[in-house]
Amino acid sequence: MIAMSSDNQGTNARVSNLSQVRTVTKYTFLNYFRARRFYVMLGIVLLISALLTFVAGYYRSPFFGFGSSDPALTFYSAYWGSFATLVVLLSVVFFGGDAISSEFQNKTGYFLIPNPLRRSVVYVGKWLAALGASTLILAVFVLIALANGTYFFGASVPYQFGESVLFAWIYLVSAMGLTFLFSSLFKSSSISILTTVIVFLFAFDVIDTIASVVAGIEPWFSITYAGGIIANVLAVTYPPHTVVTRVGRNFTLTTFNASIPEGLAIMAVYFVVTAALGLWLFEKKEFTS
Amino acid sequence: MPGSSIEAVNLSKSFGSFAAVSSLSLKLEGTKCIGFLGPNGAGKTTTMKMFTGLISPTQGKALINGVNIKEDKKKALGSCASLIETPEIYPALTAREALMMLSELRGVPKGERTKRIDEALGKVKMQEWADKKVGSFSKGMKQRVNVASTILSDPQVVILDEPSTGLDPRGMSEVRDIVKSLGNRLVFMSSHLLSEVTEVCQEVALIDHGKLIVYDTIENVTAKFAGDGGAAEAGFSRDVDEATLSRILRLEGVDRAQKSDPRHLSIRFRGGLQAQERLFAQLADMNIGIVSFRETSTGLEDAYLSLIKETL
Question: Is the model's pLDDT at A8 over the cut of 70?
Fold first, then answer.
């Protein structure tokens, strides 16, 4: 991966890999920040927040904690817990979906790669920039949730909300790793984005349902299953690991909830494996027309 | 700057069963410009991509200043700048920011970056656009920024793959001037424009079907392979009639003469400069209203045509 060493660069100063990562991150982030898609993503978050704020304020239903025994926790569970994973997944699609594939399709790689730097520098730099942009979007959602929570239920914020935000960020790190793997797989931006959307928003959900409900297997291999801890930690009582529901006389439905250590472990494994695999693919991929 | 070198050692690249470059061995060294010529699909760009880490060789080595690019790309490209195809730049960055990114990546001293960027943009006549987003640039303007990026870090070795692509005639002329100004460096430049290569390079390497055909100075290649034929275009103050055309065709050494328009003739002739001088004098003596006489083929073109029989 990235060795923090320096190499001789002829007449110019020596540049460490770390400095080059910083440079790639800085300019990629600048490119993201000025691009339309950043503001589209910001607009989506503001729209989701506006709708939630309207529904919460107008209907004042128990779903948002009004009249419940633990109103603040219930509010954050409904407002943040129900939508944080969606915001995370949309962010990784927006900022990571074509981060690597666009280097091939748009030919920006021809500007960057034939320079004295390792490909891993470009990969890590772009990954950090995408993570930064996504973190910014997530932070906006956190601040709006906090503002709403404070307005409706006072300044006392339950500590579980902090945990949930932290888990959402770890989920973002992990999901970004997988997104970059898809982005390294393809040379077409649209295919890599489409694949990411299908995998995150449909495929994993289908796999989770089939594994748990149909086959009765805990979907420990699924990142979205691990992402369940973001909402679960906001439950007044953390849900049990296995929930069996009887349906009619002869059927039972089994659903699973990842424990916090299990969820974090799954995310960590996803991050390590997908980051290594994505980087390896990018190192091997050739810039052919 | 002695010691600069680009070397291909038994360099090969295959895409499936297609051998794009086949056992290419070539050593370029010193401070000069070498034109890299060949028909479409000959393997020029593939070779240059192997020298810049965009693709990996199937076999053999691509060395820059003695360093194998596959083993230590960072060191090999430390003193080498390149322009391969027509790169795109992150569209939301300004030209200045894009070049600043490269100068940071390439280790241009911090105190010199702004000055060097201004100089590089000045050379490609893009100062006025320095702070505009690249996304709003035309293809030619982007290529000018790309050309600027190759001179930014004061490299010892410059690899240019058809640098004039997408440029207007003035842009092409400016790129030629820039390449000529890189006189104290080793420049390896592919081009389809033989006149461009003749103007800026001292040596040529010809490649066809992935194999090196010849590598020598332009003079030697021309002397060996161009034959002694020549071509010229003569202009007249009045329309050239059939009788005059017949008289010209009967002149010693003239192989062919045909009208390109009523007042211009394309003439092919045998013999070198002496034959050309004699032909010009004879045309003047004929009193047929000749007002211009211009050589239209270069020796390199003839050599190229005699060495490269197919275009694909």
Answer: no
| Model pLDDT for residues A148-183, shown as the tens digit of each residue | 999 999 989 999 999 999 999 999 999 999 999 999
- Residues B106, B211 within the same domain: yes
Work out the minimum CA distance from A94 to partner chain B, whole angstroms: 16
Asked if residue B312 is part of any domain, the answer here is no
Contact A118 B105 (CB under 8 A): no
Whole-complex ipTM: 0.88
Are both B115 and B196 inside the same structural domain?
yes
Same-domain pairing of B181 and B303: no
Q: Which residues form the domain of B60? A: 5-223
d(CA B266, CA B298): 14
Chain A interface, best mutation among B15, B90, B153, by max A CB count within 10 A: B90
Q: What DSSP state is assigned to residue A240?
A: P
Backbone dihedral region for residue B276 (phi beyond 0: left; psi -120 to 50: alpha; all else: beta): alpha
Q: Of B173, B193, B223, which residue is a domain's last?
A: B223
pLDDT band at B229 (very low <50, low <70, confident <90, very high): confident
Task: Evaluate whether B296 touches B258 at the Cβ level (below 8 Å).
Answer: no
Q: In what order do the strands lie in the sheet with B230-236?
A: B254-261, B264-269, B230-236, B290-295
Any CB–CB contact under 8 A between A111 and chain B?
Answer: yes
Residues B258 and B214 in one domain: no
0.90 surpassed by pTM: no
Give the mean model confidence (pLDDT) for residues A256-266. 97
Q: What residue ranges in A133-209 does DSSP mark as E strands?
A: none
| Average pLDDT over all residues of chain B | 91
What is the identity of the amino acid at B204? V
User: Is the CB of residue B70 less than 8 Å away from at least one CB of chain A?
Assistant: no
For residue B274, what are the contacts with CB-CB under 8 A and spacing of at least 6?
none
Q: How many CB atoms lie within 10 A of CB B147?
A: 23
Find chain B residues with C-beta within 8 A of A113's C-beta: 52-54
Residue finishing a domain among B223, B252, B275: B223
Same domain, residue pair B142 and B205: yes
Mutate which of A5, A113, A187, A284 to test chain B, going by most B C-beta atoms within 10 A?
A113
Q: Is the pLDDT score of A269 beyond 50?
A: yes
Q: Are the beta carbons of B107 and A15 separated by less than 8 Å?
A: yes
Asked if the C-beta of B262 comes within 8 angstroms of chain A's C-beta atoms, the answer is no
Domain extents in chain A: 17-284
Residue A214 has pLDDT above 90, yes or no: no
Give the CATH number of the domain where residue B288 resides.
3.30.70.1560
- For chain A, the average pLDDT equals 93
**Does residue B115 sit within a domain?**
yes
Whether B72 and B163 share a structural domain: yes
B148 vs A: CB within 8 A: no
- CATH number for the domain spanning B35: value is 3.40.50.300
Going by pLDDT thresholds of 50, 70 and 90, the confidence category of residue B311 is low
- Band (B256; pLDDT cuts 50, 70, 90): confident
B11 with B141, same domain: the answer is yes
H helix or E strand, kind and range, residue A142: helix A119-153
Question: B184 and B282: one domain?
Answer: no
Q: Percentage of residues in chain A with pLDDT exceeding 90? A: 87
